[in-house]
Amino acid sequence: MDTKISYANRYREVQELFNENKYDECIAVGKQLLCDITLPRFIIIKVCILICFATEDWDEAEEYRKAGEQVFGVARGLITAENTDDETEAGFVLLRKDLDSIAKDQARYIPEQEDDDEEMDVEREVYGEKSEEENEDEAEEEDVMEGELEQQKHDIEEATSGLDVNEEIVAGMNKEMERAAERPTRVNGVSNTESMRNLSLRVRDTNYNAPKG
């Protein structure tokens, strides 16, 4: 069998599947046909066009549209006035028309892109990252808590003055608050600013009439 006839018949099989609205089969057979490295450029372009028309997947259509455009550019570049004829030129015109039609449809129905800020929020949520605003808020919280820490230490000193309190207990409380202030990280989902608030409550509720050691 003549090679050109064989290629034409194989393309016709893809085309018939498309005409019968068997789009999934059309795409599958078309992709299989494109695996043939000996396939003529004209057939490659026409199969790419059929896949674009058959698929409902925008990304897939765009992939094969670009492939068709690339092969079209190569084929068109190899044609000169000496090696062309009316039939060849008419074929290029039809291919160009179909590729342009697909490009317009792709541009018209391009999927809506998610808002950049929303995408960044999702990424931060997935990877545990924080926004600049969140970092600024946390920095402000840390500053406030440092001020509260100093006040709490002062309150402890005043509350324990004149009382018979084990100095090691007071020193231990002060060190615990200082360590919490030095680690602006999150542990088990709780920030140190939150931990410091809890510690602050414990300090305020402490009975400073502690027993002697």
UniProtKB/TrEMBL annotation:
Comp. bias regions, Acidic residues: 112-122, 131-149
Biased composition (Polar residues): 188-198
Top-level taxon of origin: Eukaryota
Segments for region (Disordered): 111-149, 177-213
Name this protein carries in UniProt: Uncharacterized protein
Taxon lineage: Eukaryota, Fungi, Dikarya, Ascomycota, Pezizomycotina
